[in-house]
Design a protein that fits this description.
The chain has 513 residues and is mainly beta. The chain contains four helices and 32 strands. The strands form three sheets. The protein has a 27-stranded parallel sheet that branches. The protein starts with a helix and ends in a 9-residue tail after the last helix.
């Protein structure tokens, strides 16, 4: 007769085989069909998400056939505004380079056909031909969604609206993907491409091009292409280019880390306090904010948007980053030039080894490019550079940023003078202007760049070894001011080597007495 202990041991060993331990099992659902489909169409994306939601297993996987083009034009939305799916259980989605493709269209009251390649905001009398779809809701808005973790890799999108709304308590990581031609034709104030509400959102190696939301108040969670309210946002090694939705990244409460990322032609960035989290902090490290309007290759021309804003309760920390603005290519009331490109509008802006430059248009009121108001303030360290303006001298800037040793000399970046009287300046389109002028004041400024002043990511603490264009971040132990490491001409490098040699006593003949 078997002892009770032996029977118990045998039962425990048999438990996984009998299906009793679901935590040890993972289900895989394959997407093989080129239409979004429905929950009953086996092999479609809609079916796979529904199956993953229903599964009681953990560590579930949805895998998409490599390179598959998935048409969403005939899809049926599950919620407003035209959302296709809600993810309610943790899952990993391996996109394998597949692309969700939409071709939204509407006809204006005057008979014009508007598509994703000639986008404009829809009006109340316009007629929808093909709707613009949003894709994923991660969790349910207003619920806890505790423990809901979703990972998506290699899933591209073309012609959709919002990619994901991440709701309270949920976690979404999205990586290795290209998003193009996002348009909001829904008439509601949601906009591409990612929104987080009391949630955690991480984007890595993601490119977003030509995304148009058309609406959403700046300084709120609806104010950016990537936006968060009372949330944590991590954006790394990514690009947001030529887009328009009242700024590239917006945070209202919580923390945002923007690391080794380029934001160009897409407005600026903003941070403020939120609803449940009274303060917001945005850390911009080794990143480039290049603001230019449509006449200079950008997508968002509004003066009110093309600025780095710290609103009430907000702190903006710029480290080894560059903020450049081409004012002549922007549009709007000339009074809005005040605070372009830096606007501490009730919050704080802090610069560490960063470079900031505005261009001048002297047929407008005197330009106050760097502005602090409503109790806002600015600081800078001794390795930061800010270009003086006609209405803000070097002395003014040193006072404004509370830094007597602030770098203000020239040349920093190349300027094109279109007219001298009145003075009208512009800068080269991206990426040329992002490089420091050879032999200028930005090169070889930060000492001990591989030791005490080395750059580290605030996301994971890893060392940052390259700039946003892939150039080595240091040169002979020195780092350039701003986000881009210049590439000196041979004569400049020779001068640097000679100077270092003199400092170290190398190459000099010394007499021993």
């Amino acid at each position: 007769m078997l002892s009770n202990r032996t029977v118990l041991l045998a039962s425990l060993l048999a438990w996984p085989a009998l299906g009793g331990a679901h935590s040890a099992r993972a289900d895989t659902f394959s997407v093989t069909l080129g239409d979004w489909g429905s929950t009953s169409d086996v092999g479609t994306f809609a079916w796979a998400i529904n199956q993953a939601n229903l599964s009681t297993a953990s560590d579930n996987l949805i895998t998409v056939a490599p390179g598959l083009k998935i048409n969403v034009d005939g899809a049926e939305a599950t919620s407003s505004p035209n959302n296709l799916a809600t993810i309610s259980r943790s899952v990993t989605i391996a996109g394998n380079g597949a692309t969700l493709v939409g071709n939204p269209e509407f006809v204006t009251n005057s008979g014009q056909l508007v598509t994703k390649t000639n986008p404009q905001s829809p009006g109340p009398k316009d007629i929808t031909v093909i709707p613009s779809f949003s894709v994923f809701k991660v969790g349910t808005y207003g619920q806890a969604n505790t423990g809901l973790t979703v990972s998506m890799t290699g899933l591209n999108a073309d012609g959709l609206n919002r990619i994901a709304q991440v709701n309270q308590g949920a976690i979404l990581s999205y990586s290795g993907a290209a998003i193009v031609n996002s348009v909001n034709f829904t008439g509601t104030p949601t906009g591409p491409s990612f929104e987080a509400f009391g949630a955690s959102l991480s984007l890595s190696h993601v490119s977003i091009d030509n995304a148009y939301g058309f609406n959403g108040p700046i300084g709120t969670a609806l104010g950016g292409i990537v936006s968060g309210e009372d949330s944590t946002i991590n954006l790394s090694d990514s690009r947001i280019r030529n887009t328009s939705n009242l700024g590239a990244v917006s945070l209202a409460g919580g923390t945002a880390n923007i690391v080794s990322t380029v934001l160009t032609g897409s407005g600026g960035i903003s941070v403020s306090g939120g609803g449940s989290i009274a303060t917001g902090t945005m850390n911009v490290v080794n990143s480039l904010v290049f603001m230019q309007g449509q006449m200079n290759g950008g997508g968002d021309p509004e003066l009110a948007v093309n600025r780095v804003i710290a609103g009430s309760g907000g702190t903006m920390n710029l480290t080894a980053s560059s903020v450049l603005v081409d004012a002549i290519s922007l549009s709007g009331d000339p009074a809005f030039l005040n605070g372009v490109p830096l606007d501490a509008n009730g919050g704080r802006i802090n610069l560490v080894s960063s470079a900031v430059m505005g261009t001048q248009i002297q047929d407008t009121p005197p330009q106050i490019a760097y502005q602090a108001g409503y109790g806002g303030s600015m600081t800078a360290d001794v390795y930061s550079w800010i270009r003086p303006m006609s209405a803000q001298s070097a002395t003014d800037l040193r006072t404004l940023f509370n830094q007597p040793s602030l770098l203000t000399g020239s040349p920093g970046y190349a300027i094109i003078v279109l007219n001298t009287n009145p003075l009208i300046e512009m800068i080269d389109p991206y990426p040329g202007e992002a490089y420091p002028v050879d032999g200028g004041v930005l090169l070889n400024v930060v000492p001990n760049a591989t030791s005490t002043n080395q750059l580290f990511s605030p996301i994971d603490g890893s060392p940052i070894l390259t700039d946003v264009f892939g150039n080595a971040r240091t040169r002979l132990g020195l780092r350039d001011v701003g986000a881009v490491q210049g590439i000196p001409e041979p004569s400049t490098m020779l001068g640097l080597l000679t100077g270092l040699g003199a400092l170290l006593g190398v190459g000099r003949r010394r007499t021993v007495g």
